[in-house]
Design brief:
The protein is α/β, with parallel strands linked by helices. The chain has helices at residues 27-37, 87-106, 122-133, 148-152, 159-175, 187-192, 216-222, 244-252, 270-280, 296-302, and strands at residues 9-13, 41-46, 61-67, 70-76, 113-118, 138-142, 178-181, 198-200, 229-234, 259-264, 285-288, 305-306. The chain folds into 2 domains: 9-200, Glycogen Phosphorylase B (Rossmann fold); 210-306, Rossmann fold (3-Layer(aba) Sandwich), CATH 3.40.50. Strand 9, helix 8 and strand 10 form a beta-alpha-beta unit.
């Protein structure tokens, strides 16, 4: 399909999409707003189940907002709910979204670009099918190297599943009209597996979102952190985050009564981390629930140091 104007209708299929009033990464929320501000129409098909917390956070259906001279429509489709129980349950969730998002995407007319993003890679299969059926270009965004990551951390062990996963990755990379990565280190990987046109759009930050730093002192009082040196980790609590190492560090710092290590966020490994901290007897560790992107600036301002691991 050829668009004779400079404005496009962009269809994004993304199970883990998060808006500013939801916990989780907001890369696609901010990219969609940028595209809409420049007059494009963005349709996002996503899940009502939070990718970060596994909780049902919003209702099914469509919501359209107008941004600049463009618009964003968010459509949430039914998805298997038992997201955080196990790897098998997560896979079922991915597959059900792949199916329900396909039927929803079929109803979107006059699409100029279909945008698939991975992980999870299953939703990019839907994006590829829709792109072919609607004769639209496929943009394949690679935010993490899958299945390479799953193999390295031991989540994916079966040799047959590994070969099938690697075949699927190569299949999609070869058929994408454009591949977008968020790290320069991914470029060689995707090119070796068949990507023809590769662009790098790294993650970033919108400074306008980080007003309100003065609220940090109020939060210190709320969480009993007055007079403490606060080290904050804010993000996902998953296999790749290696937060057990932070607990080992906290164990070595137990004698320093003025230090507190705060874990802010959620993820599959959080219950195990909480249990481990109890077993280790760590009075200097605090776990806080995930917050929305709008609340993050004040949480960061509460900290004396922020931790990336």
């Amino acid at each position: 399909m050829t668009n004779t104007t400079n404005k496009m209708k962009i269809l994004l299929i993304h199970q883990a999409f998060a808006a500013l009033d939801e916990p989780g990464g907001t890369r696609h929320h901010e990219l969609s707003h940028y595209l809409a501000q420049n007059g494009n129409e963005v349709i996002i098909i996503t899940s009502p189940i939070s990718y970060l917390t596994g909780k049902d956070q919003s209702k099914l259906g469509k919501e359209t907002i107008h941004v600049g001279s463009g618009s964003i429509t968010i459509q949430r489709v039914r998805t298997y709910r038992a997201f955080h129980r196990s790897f098998v349950h997560r896979t079922i969730s991915f597959i059900t979204f792949m199916i329900t998002s396909f039927w929803a995407a079929l109803t979107v007319p006059n699409v100029d670009v279909v945008w698939g993003t991975s992980p999870p890679i299953f939703q990019t299969v839907t994006a590829w099918l829709i792109a072919r059926l609607k004769r639209a270009p496929l943009l394949f965004e690679v935010r993490d190297l899958w299945p390479a990551f799953a193999i390295q951390v031991g989540v994916l062990k079966n040799p047959i599943l590994i070969r099938l996963s690697e075949w699927l990755e190569r299949f999609l990379l070869k058929r994408a009209d454009c591949v977008v990565v968020n790290s320069p280190g991914f470029i060689a990987h995707v090119k070796e597996r068949g990507a023809k046109w590769v662009e790098c759009i790294p993650n970033g930050a919108d400074p306008a979102l980080f007003d309100g730093a003065h609220l940090g002192e109020n939060l210190r009082s709320r969480f009993g952190l007055e007079g403490k040196f606060v080290v904050l980790y804010a993000g996902a609590h998953g296999l790749s985050n290696d937060l057990g190492t932070v607990l080992l560090a906290a164990n070595q710092l137990k004698e320093f009564a003025d230090i507190r290590i705060v874990f802010l966020g959620d993820g599959k490994e959080k219950p195990a981390l909480i249990q481990q901290s109890v077993q280790m007897g760590l009075p200097n560790v605090i776990f806080l629930d995930a917050v929305t992107k709008r609340e993050i600036p004040a949480m960061l301002a509460m900290a004396d140091a922020c931790l990336a691991i």
